[in-house]
Structure formats: C-alpha cells, structure tokens
Specification:
By secondary structure, the protein is an alpha/beta fold. It has a domain at 69-215: Aromatic compound dioxygenase (Protocatechuate 3,4-Dioxygenase, subunit A). The chain has helices spanning 7-32, 183-186, 190-196, and strands at 69-70, 73-74, 80-89, 99-103, 127-131, 137-143, 154-161, 164-173, 197-198, 201-203, 206-210, 213-215. It is globular.
C-alpha cells in the first residue's frame, strides 16, 4: 500500500521547477545585456616619407613581384630577400585590390633612372608592382637593400587604390649602422622608426622581411 504524500511534497517538484525557470528568466537579461563588445580601436596609419628622386621614369620589361628576373635576365648579385606583408585600412579591414609598388637600387647602389647616370644593372628589375588579394597580402622577391652615397639601405614603397595614391614611404633595415646617419631616418620619431624599420632575417630560401601597411582609404 502506497504511503500518501503530503500536499507540500506533492507540489514540491513543480514548485522547484517554476522557481528555477523564474530565476533563469530574471538572470537572462543580465546575460543578454552584459558588457557590449567594444569596437576595435582605429589603427595608426603607416608614416609617409618622400618619394625620392628615383621613381622610375620608364618601367622595366617586367613589373611583376620578382625583381631578380628582368625579362629573360637573372640577377645573381646581392642577398635574395622575400618582402611580404598585408595592407589594412584604419579599421583593420584588409584592402583588396590595392597596388603595392616597390623600387630600389641594385647591389652596386644604382637606380634605373637617368638622374643616376643610367649605371644600373639591366639584370635587376629594380621595380615591382602587384595587386593585393582578398586578405590584403602582398609579396616581392628582391635583394636586401644596400647603402649608397648619403643614404642608408632602404626600399621605397607606394600603395595605390584605383587612381589614388594612398601611401608613399620607405622601409629601413633594423640594426643597420647607417640608419643613425641617414637624414630621413633621423627625422622620424622613435615610434615612426619602429614602424618603418624591419628585421631582415635569414630563411631557407633567402632573407625575409615583413612590412605591414596601414592606409587611410
């Protein structure tokens, strides 16, 4: 014979369930209305620098990513280097379809430019241009830049989007003794030097340097 249950014990499971549900409803708004995700802070634009006097007057046979191959010619001098990075806007979004250009002197310190006397090695492309992909990435094969009279080693960089030039700047080599004597590098603030100076480190297929670019679109 079953033992009769008291009224309180009869309704206890339902009461507990209702109380749990009510507690969940009370707590839920606190969960839903908790701290809102804050927007990411705006990024700082890559510092601009002068274009310099040696932007190409006439482009080489090739204008692709590989500056060590100019048409059918291969450039065997210098330290082969992969220069790579991503282009982002101030909100941190990848900039797709931007054109990234680089240009620099050859291993003997000469540019493909009439103002430099036309002494550059024809095997060295000296200038390259690529279009960023959906992730904003770019990559060039070139040489570790070298010094020439009055300048520490550097690579010139320009970013375009359509007909607009978004950035013109220069990349320097971290730890290069000539940096402190270079008038353009010295003019930079310490924070700007950090942004425009990158380590060039040995890799399995040459030197590597990363140069992230942030532009106002």
């Amino acid at each position: 014979m079953k033992t009769p249950m008291s009224p309180s014990s009869t309704h206890a499971p339902g009461l507990i369930g209702r109380r749990a549900a009510a507690a969940a409803l009370v707590a839920a708004p606190a969960l839903w209305l908790g701290p809102r995700a804050q927007p990411a802070p705006a990024r700082r634009a890559t510092p601009a620098q002068t274009e310099g006097p040696f932007y190409p007057q006439a482009f080489p046979k090739d204008t692709d990513y590989d500056l060590l191959r100019n048409g059918d010619l291969n450039y065997p001098e210098g330290q082969p280097t992969w220069l790579e990075g991503h282009v982002h806007d101030l909100a941190g979004q990848a900039v797709k379809g931007a054109q990234v250009e680089i240009w620099q002197c050859d291993g003997a310190g000469h540019y493909h430019h009439a103002g430099d006397g036309g002494r550059a090695d024809d095997r060295f492309q000296g200038f390259g241009r690529i279009t960023t992909d959906a992730t904003g990435s770019y990559r060039f094969r070139t040489i570790r830049p070298v010094a020439y009279s009055g300048r520490t080693p550097h690579i010139h960089v320009k970013v375009r989007l359509g007909s607009r030039a978004l950035l013109t700047t220069q990349l320097y080599v971290d730890g290069e003794p000539g940096n402190a004597r270079d008038f353009l590098w010295r003019a930079l603030s310490p924070a700007d030097r950090d942004v425009l100076t990158a380590p060039f480190v040995p890799g399995p297929d040459g030197m590597r340097a990363r140069f992230p670019l942030v532009v106002a679109t």
